[in-house]
# Entry
Amino acid sequence: MTGSAYDHFKKAIEAQQLKRYQEALTLYEKSLEKNPNNAEAHNNMGIILSILGAHEAAIQHFNEAKNIKPELPQVYNNLGNAHESLGQLHDAIKDYEMAISVQTNYTDSYYNLARVYTEMREFEKAEATLNKLLQLDGNNAYACYGMGNMYAKKRDFDKAITWFENAIKLKPNYGEAHYKLGVTYGLQGDMDKGIKHINYANSLGYEYQSDMVFSTDKTAITTSSDDFVVIGSDTHTYDDGTESTIVYTTEETKPPIQESIDTKEPVKEEVIITEDPIQQPIIEEDETVNTNELYQKFEQLLGKTGKNAGDIGNLPDEVKPTRIQSDDFSYTPTESSSNQFDFLLKDKFKDQNIREFTNKREAIAALFKEGYTEFMNGDYDRSVEAYTSVLDLESKNSMAMYSLGTVYAFKKENDKALDYLLRSIDIKKNFPKAYDNAGFVYFQMGNYNKAIEYLLKAVSMDSTMVNALVVLGDAYYQVDNKGKKIEYYKKAARLGDIQAQAFLKKEGFDWD
# Structure
């Protein structure tokens, strides 16, 4: 690297570390004008572009870096992070696998790979990857946390607790593990232990964060300015004309921020959001729910003072107030519907403005009506609130889970959509619409084999589900099986689907 090129490169790294990104980009560009084969400069430009949201441009620079120096696992790891940001999980998997193939003990990419598998609900692959990581480093607290994360996603809370506790034994001040352990205890109904661990996480300075990735210095960092590995280089030219380049990574001085289980959305500073509603205590017959006490419990969980207790606006989105008295009846909605994304309740409600009910049945019916009405009005957030309130009252209501999954599918929040739909299926295994929508969400996520699996189950239960047949055909086409696409498009066309008929006509096929 020439003197001027290296000077620009060195100044660019300094600017990047100070988060002066535009200045750093300009300096990297000047360095590359003098030395276009500087892999480190391409890598670092990719980092900045990803921070600024230009992930496609970032990927171009990461690809340049790997073409110049294919021996750097950090670049593949960074490329995987960028593909994840675009929702391109299959590409991210390939990148992390490449990082591991370049350096077989590159533990960071093992963790990131397992995390992606967990997001895709490929639990066996996630567990196998984490086991490999533990073979490389049996005292890796992050690997233990990853196991806990995976089991929590599988709804196996006992094993999740064991692994979160293992992570804490290895790293006592692991704020994220304490937080998730607390949430898991809460989901099991042990609110005292849950609050204890969440408060301890807060005392460690942990705040709820979005997903994390690993850098090469074993620092877990959020998807912000520190997502990626900054590579610097210093090249020395010897008297005989040969060059030696030293590659190094930046050292982060701030404490690591760890990964959360379900949500990828940014959250308000004062609100802790979990993907699942925290269950209320079991309500005996004719017992009145004291909502003020519940508010105080959740306010304690949120670290609020007594003066804020009962302030509805400070509650997590998943916890909404519903003042009821319970009885022995449970509400079971009808299931007659023909539309893939139709909801299950239309005409079986009492006054939609009721806010105090004589029994739980009436409360749930009104909430279902509210959820459906808000959905039809396009207010998906309020629809989510209504259906989540059903789960606050009846935590295993499969129809509420199905409806939540459907709303989240419309919001394009695929992870949440899939989680609720699969929970609905766990409770009600013969419900074809839930399989249909789960298959559609898998398709949206690019997991075509899983989409095929769930859509096949849907049409095996109800062969007249036109939307399922069309998406099933599209999924087969994505895995290079055009024959199957034709087969299922013909079935959809015979049921009157215009899209399928138009495609078959264009391709020269008859469907009668």
In short: DSSP finds 22 helices and four strands in the chain.
